[in-house]
Design brief:
Strand order of the largest sheet: 2-1-3-4-5
Radius of gyration: 39 Å
Distance between the termini: 96 Å
Largest sheet: 5 strands, parallel
Oligomer: single chain
Helix content: 25-40%
């Protein structure tokens, strides 16, 4: 221990120094408060023995300054005094004194007081070091959290690109969010939205969001169906997450025209199709287990398909909304949520969340609050600089045999090839949709001879896809021919898809009705293409797609 003796009498300084050095203390001396402060600024002092009456700066002023300057760690001040009046003692305590030693000095009492305050000093030093260590680790954790939060925000948030279609609110119960809202646009122009809620909240709940978001965006960029996206996200989460973690989710796809919706619902509260006044037009109930629970062969792909228009909205929420409680432990509930949606025309997420917060009335938020209001409006195409159309004509022809049909899905590769031609990239979404619908129709209903009416049965989707897989595995002696011709003079693309199947009768009727209950169907081709025709056998479709008005 290093002790500072401050006294204007040299004899007192010498006497105290001898007594303390005999007990193996390190001792420094000062003649007044100014010298004492200078020593304190240069050396580490553990206890100050301070005289009251001194020239230049007395003990009262010195004690006050010491306590002000060195308050991080307790620095004991023991006053040296010959004063006996009560007022002097009280003042010594007021300015920061911790104890007294009366003159003349008693060695036994001095030793006892020094030892007692040494223990206090050591404890204070230890506490200070622990606090510094805790502060260091806290700052490190905060820094790491900031980095991770930055990564999460950049990886997950894409909603602001679609403000006309998406109004959303994410309010985490802690720094990290167990809920996620993913939004992306596919090559065919459709707008996808996935609202997910992982088990729990905070960082542990958020870790599954990164792999899920990667799968979502990858699948959306490939223009995959909602059922395929759900299945792929499920497969990844089953592999990565522990058994007690899963992700309740709703995944929806709004067609680029804003006229139809496909939805997969697994584990979240009911979603609602509402009008501009907030009245419920349709309740979308959860049909499936949450993502990350079932193995691939058990996973359920069934979707809900329905038609919409620009006056309709979809309301999606996590259970944090309806399970918010007030002081009486009442839930906000589905009924209050429905009333909140209808509380005003064109209600916003902010309006609904304000009602949830008002209901909670100061109760601590227990779970993440996430809400999406999805406007069923036509989706604007991604803005890209218009490239000049190529002036060179070209033909593209591809013939697939049975083995190639089983092993490949050629549509994406074909689209990649032909959109390299000048000016065609802007039309990628329409080209993808035309080829995808026509090719899949040729495969499913032409080559494989499947009937969409199977899907109308209970568990019809499962039966349909099981039959499709079994029939495709046995396929022999089949052909699908894809022919594409670009005409720069008329700025048109001509598509011909022919299959070796038996075709169908009354082609116009079938073309307009096929799959209407279960997806976009061929009817949408007539909305995109300028002309769609079928041969008399029903196994060949020809489409003319106009790129633009003829350039001068």
């Amino acid at each position: 221990m290093h002790i500072l003796v401050v006294d204007d009498q040299p004899l007192n300084c010498t006497l105290l120094k001898v007594m303390l050095v005999q007990q193996n203390y390190e001792v420094s001396t000062a003649a007044n408060g100014v010298e004492a402060l200078a020593i304190l600024a240069q050396q580490s002092i553990d206890i100050v023995l301070l005289d009251v009456i001194m020239p230049v700066m007395d003990g009262y002023e010195t004690a006050t300054k010491i306590k002000q300057l060195y308050n991080d760690v307790h620095l004991p001040i023991i006053f040296i005094t010959s004063l006996e009046d009560q007022n002097s003692f009280e003042r010594c305590l007021e300015v920061g004194g911790d104890d007294f030693i009366h003159k003349p000095f008693d060695k036994v009492i001095l030793t006892a007081k020094i030892k007692a305050h040494s223990r206090t000093r050591k404890l204070s030093l230890k506490t200070h070091e622990q606090n510094k260590l805790l502060e260091y680790h806290y700052n490190q954790t905060e820094r790491e959290h900031e980095i991770v939060e930055h990564i999460f925000n950049n990886a997950l948030e894409n909603q602001h690109k679609f403000t006309n279609n998406i109004d959303f609110h994410l309010s985490p119960a802690s720094m990290f969010n167990g809920d996620m809202c993913l939004v992306g646009q596919s090559p065919i122009g459709s707008l996808y939205c996935m609202l997910g809620d992982f088990t729990g909240h905070g960082l542990a709940a958020a870790v599954g969001a990164l792999p899920a978001s990667k799968v979502f965006y990858t699948m959306v960029n490939k223009g995959m169906a909602v059922s395929d996206i759900a299945a792929e996200v499920n497969a990844v989460l089953v592999q990565l997450l522990p058994g007690y973690m899963f992700c309740a989710a709703t995944i929806i796809e709004l067609s680029s025209s804003g006229k139809s919706v496909s939805a997969w619902l697994g584990g979240l509260p009911d979603a609602y199709l509402i009008d501009q006044q907030g009245s419920v037009l349709k309740t979308l109930e959860s049909q499936h287990m949450a993502l990350g629970i079932l193995e691939g062969d058990e996973f359920e792909r069934e979707l809900i398909h329905f038609e919409v228009d620009s006056s309709m909205r979809l309301a999606l929420a996590t259970d944090g909304i309806i399970e918010t409680t007030n002081a009486d432990d009442e839930f906000f509930s589905e009924q209050r949520f429905i009333k909140a949606l209808a509380s005003k025309p064109q209600v916003s997420c902010k309006d609904v969340i304000n009602q949830v917060t008002k209901f909670a009335h100061g109760s601590k938020q227990q779970d993440d609050l996430s809400l999406v209001l999805f406007n069923c409006m036509a989706v604007p195409a991604a803005a890209e600089e218009q490239a000049a159309y190529s002036r060179l004509p070209f033909n593209f022809s591809l013939t697939l045999n049975s083995q190639q049909i089983k092993q490949t899905d050629p549509v994406l590769e074909i689209v990649e090839v032909i959109t390299q031609v000048g000016g065609l990239k802007e039309h990628r979404s329409d080209i993808f949709l035309l080829l995808s619908e026509a090719y899949n129709n040729a495969l499913d209903h032409g080559v494989l001879g499947l009937d969409s009416a199977i899907k109308n049965k209970e568990d019809g989707f499962i039966e349909y896809y099981q039959l499709r897989e079994a029939t495709l595995a046995k396929l022999v002696d089949a052909l699908i021919i894809v022919d594409i011709r670009y005409c720069p003079d008329t700025l048109s693309l001509y598509f011909t898809i022919c299959d070796s199947g038996n075709g169908f009768a009354n082609t116009d009727s079938n073309a307009n009705s096929n799959n209407r209950e279960h997806g976009r169907g061929l009817s949408i081709l007539e909305e995109i293409a300028e002309q769609v025709t079928y041969n008399s056998s029903g196994n060949q479709i020809e489409m003319c797609y106009r790129l633009a008005q003829q350039q001068s």
